Structure formats: structure tokens, C-alpha cells
Amino acid sequence: MFDRLIWDKLNEECGVFGIYNHKEASQLTYLGLHALQHRGQESAGICASDGEKWYKHRGMGLVSEAFGKGDLEKFSGHIAIGHTRYTTAGSSKIENAQPLFFRYAQGSMAVAHNGNLVNAAVLRKELEAKGSIFQTTSDTEVIAHLIARSECKDLPGAVKDALQYIKGAYALLVMNENQLVIALDPNGLRPLSLGRLGDAITVASETCAFDIIGAQYWRDVQPGELIVIDKDGITESKYTETTQRSICTFEYIYFARPDSDIDGINVHMARKRLGKQLALESAIDADVVTGVPDSSISAAIGFAEATGIPYEIGLIKNRYVGRTFIQPSQELRERAVYLKLSAVRKVVEGKRVVMIDDSIVRGTTSNRIVRMLREAGAKEVHVRISSPPVMNSCFYGIDTSAREELIASTKSVEEIRQIIEADSLSFLSIEGMIDAIGRTDSAPNRGHCLACFNGEYPTEIEFEEALPALKC
């Protein structure tokens, strides 16, 4: 994809949304997916039920592209789940678009999943050896097969049974005609929150999805928690006692929308504090501070406030580029960053500019933005990064490059500075980042996953055990 060739940022995972006990469940889910669009732009889908009949639709592209005129008009029901997808496991095609829908011995179910299973390949191989036939390349289908193989006759019991075998990151929604089952992995690697809308209960990857439908935030789903919502009310339980909060730190740095709250911490305010901490660690004499839109703007404002250097909009993002699949030449590739960004010449011309960004992955985009600012007349360009160097790949649902492609895995800060052609370069320290975000957990690293920074993964990455018979 053209976009991936020119924009070497970390890519979002997916977004999930669900609602129970609302007569317009499907329509509200559609709105919720719009709020979560930033988490995935490759496909979207909704499954709903009125207690007897199912209503299903999936499509490729943005939410507005996946659902055409009239697609939702035929939908009915009081329960629905939705998903917007960025490909991390399985290729980008309609078969892998979620929610996935299945008919099995106990009836029907739909599954939506945000995250990656680190033992999916081993489980898939074992399941295929035992006769399972897979229709997709998504690791989400592994979960569905485990549920279907369970000896438990009820959906919540079968889900709980299946969760004993999977490892990795998962914010999971499973529904049948009358129940909504919600589960979060034992490390809480992905965010997942509950809200209330009158008598309805809703669940979403981010709290910003509640705002768009007028729901009120209730609480966060806890690591290792299983929640069942049906006509009898809400049942909350733990499917494992072996839990340790390790939320992806990049939710605060880059992925989540600024208006979302994660574990009670507002993302915009956390990013401002990251910028202020960056200023404490690596202040520089300059004339103007600017942020790479959109996720770095909050950190840039914080940096400007802490240093007293004026903040200006020095870079403008083109929001109407769309998606293109052409194969560009090297020359076009070098210029293609201008499709997404342009410099404001009157802001940066003749100025010493501090450019704030949230991360450096391969370094190609950083180099092009520095060049762009110089071409617009910037006298100096000082790059400040509101996270530590990304040195390791993620296996939990973030599309990072192979480790050898991550520039910080083989290059020093000075070498990276030379490659991106900046006058100076500094990254935020791990300790400063944790302090700035402000989590107060007693868990190691205050409940953060820091694997991409320090290589310490909260779960096993390879799971070699054979699959035993599934029993309740």
C-alpha cells in the first residue's frame, strides 16, 4: 500500500464497540465505529440480533465506505457488536473483516477482537489436526473454534473455557441472539471501557465512542475479567486470577484519541505532560515549537508551555489524501510525504524550529519532514520525540516493522540524528515517560507494557504446548 511506503508510523490495531438493550443498537454501533475510525481504516462491520433473527454486514474501507446507503435500514435488534479493522494478523480482504459470524452445534455467534494472539499459529495447527476447517487467516477465528469445541453448552462458559488456551492481547466481544460476553486479556494490553445509555450497556475500545452516542462512562474492564450481559442483568467474574496490568504505552503516546480517557487518565493531558517532561529533559534555544499532526500536537503544546517558546502550527496535515494503491518510483516516494504534510513557510522561515513527534520507527518520514521544514526556510530544525526509542517489535496487535528495520535497534541517537539530518535530536526517557503519563498502579512499570522500548514482554511470545481436550 502506498501509504505504508511513505508514512512509517506505528499503525493502529483495531476498534471494537458493542451495545445491549437498545432498540437502535445497530445505528448506535455505526456511530461508535465512526468515533473509533482512527484505530483501523481497512474494513468495518456490524452484527446485530433481535433475539431470533441476525443482521450482518461487513465491508472494506472506512466505516462510511463499508456501509453504503440503505445498508443499515434493514437492521433491527436490541444487541449489536461492531469492529473497525487494521490488518495485523491475516491479510486485508473481506473474509477477514469482522465481526466474524459462525453457526455451530450450540447455535450462532459473532466475534469481534482487538489485539493479537501470540500463540495463534500453534493453536491453529493443533485445531486443524483435530479436524477444524478455517475460512479466514485471522487469529480471531482461532478463538471462535475454541469456543465451538468447548463441552460447555452455554456461551459464557464456552468463552471462559476458550480463554484458558489463548495468550496475547485481546479485547474480546462475543454475542449470540440474547447475550453479550466481554473479556479482556490478563495483562489488559488493549483498552476497553463500559458505558451506560439509559437502560442500555455499551462497551468500546475508547471512551470517545460513548460521547458520540450520548452514553456515560461507567468503568474500565479489568484484566482477566469476563462480563456477561443478558436479560438477567450483568454478571461480572474473573476467568483467571493470574493478572498483571501491562497496557500498551502507545495508547497514551499515539493511538488513542485525545478526548479519550484510559484508566481515568485523559490522553490529551497525558500527552501535554509528556511534552513538558521532554522539555525538562532536553530543552533547546529556539524560536518556535511545532508538532507533527495530529498525535504530537498535545506534546508540542506541553513543550512550548514548559519552555516559553511560542507554539505555532508549522505543519499542516492534508485530510483528503485517501488511500491509493499505486506503486511509486523512488523519486515519487521521496516526494510523497508532501501528500500528507506541508510546512507553513511564514511560520518557520528564518526560525530555529523545534519539531515535536511521538516516535521514530524507520526514520524515513522524520528525514522528509526535516527536509520539508528546511525547504520552507527553517534556519535550524531540532527534533524532540515524546517517547523513548522504539527498539523492538510488537507482537500484540501493533503493526511494527521487523526489529532490524527499526532504526533505533541498530543506531545510536547521534547516528539517527545524522540520518534524519536534524540539528539536534532527543528522545524522552522511559522513567520520564512513565512519570508524565501518571499511572499509579502498583504493578511493575506502573502497569505499562514497555516491550517495544526495553524488550521485556509481559507474556510468552512462543507457545509450544500441545492443545489438550477442551473441557469445562
TrEMBL record:
CDD domains: GPATase_N (cd00715), PRTases_typeI (cd06223)
Active site: 14 (nucleophile)
Catalytic reaction list: 5-phospho-beta-D-ribosylamine + L-glutamate + diphosphate = 5-phospho-alpha-D-ribose 1-diphosphate + L-glutamine + H2O
Cofactors (names): [4Fe-4S] cluster; Mg(2+)
GO MF annotation, one: 4 iron, 4 sulfur cluster binding
GO biological process entries: 'de novo' IMP biosynthetic process; purine nucleobase biosynthetic process
UniProt: [4Fe-4S] cluster binding residues: 248, 394, 449, 452
Pathway: Purine metabolism; IMP biosynthesis via de novo pathway; N(1)-(5-phospho-D-ribosyl)glycinamide from 5-phospho-alpha-D-ribose 1-diphosphate: step 1/2
Keywords: 4Fe-4S, Glutamine amidotransferase, Glycosyltransferase, Iron, Iron-sulfur, Magnesium, Metal-binding, Purine biosynthesis, Transferase
Record text on cofactor binding: Binds 1 [4Fe-4S] cluster per subunit.
SUPFAM superfamilies: N-terminal nucleophile aminohydrolases (Ntn hydrolases), PRTase-like
Entry-linked PANTHER family: AMIDOPHOSPHORIBOSYLTRANSFERASE
NCBIfam families xref list: purF
The protein's name in its UniProt record: Amidophosphoribosyltransferase
Organism: Brevibacillus antibioticus
